[in-house]
Design a protein that fits this description.
284 residues; mainly beta; seven-stranded antiparallel β-sheet; 3 helices; globular; binds manganese (II) ion
Amino acid sequence: MKNLAFVQRNDARSAVGDFSPVLSVFSHYDFGNTISPFLLLDHIGPGRLLPSTRRKGVNDHPHRGFETVTIVYEGEIEHRDSTGGGGVIHAGDVQWMTAAAGIVHRELFSEAFSQRGGRFEMAQLWVNLPAADKMSPAGYQSLSSADIPRVELPAGAGFVRVIAGQFQDTSGPARTHTRMNVLDGQLGAGHELIFDTEAGDTALVFLLSGRLQFAPDEVLEEEGLAVMSSREAGFAMTALENSRFLVLTGAPLNEPINGHGPFVMNSYEEILQAYDDVKNGRLG
Ligand code: MN
């Protein structure tokens, strides 16, 4: 079984566009290939939006070289992009956007949610693309709550939603470029849960709320990230309190990462090219 390698905590909160508070759970700037194929995770909220006629969020911006996965727990996000894709991401839905060669998009609270206001909570994950796929055409997978299978755990211990990859015998709907599991779940206090991964795989647990334990003296507090050892296969965790979590596991890419703002490529030359392409209207 994998051991807990280390816990990452970031107690600072900031804003991304109008979204606030935002916790940067992890990013490739800190960890590079240690967390590959994952690049970045932001926890947006929980917060409360006051009713407003102004549409808040993040306005038009480009991406290249990776995928963004937006998981909405509460509230509603409307997405529009340069491929013509778009729609409202409701609570329970996931949007899996492949920026690849380039996309320009905006992410705003939906019109209806802006008018009524209320609690919001989201997570946005960035998934790296292999070098061979970074300049492929952009794409978009809209995964509604009903498309995402939910595995009920025995004894009412909770559930695991399979967004991508597999949990036990259940497969998720997201098409991915490399082997990975993106699982969203809840585990009740006192229950243990075991995840299968292959030896050598990256394995991360982000605790949205609650308290988890990996070994007698290894406790993960709310909004912390557990980075499991890449050695051995599989890992177990026990909930000390009712816990909501994201489990991210997968085969690392082990290719050079050169990221700058909204672009994540392999070399600095490719980053300069991306800025040049935006300036000259060749991206998105
Ligand atoms: Mn974006």
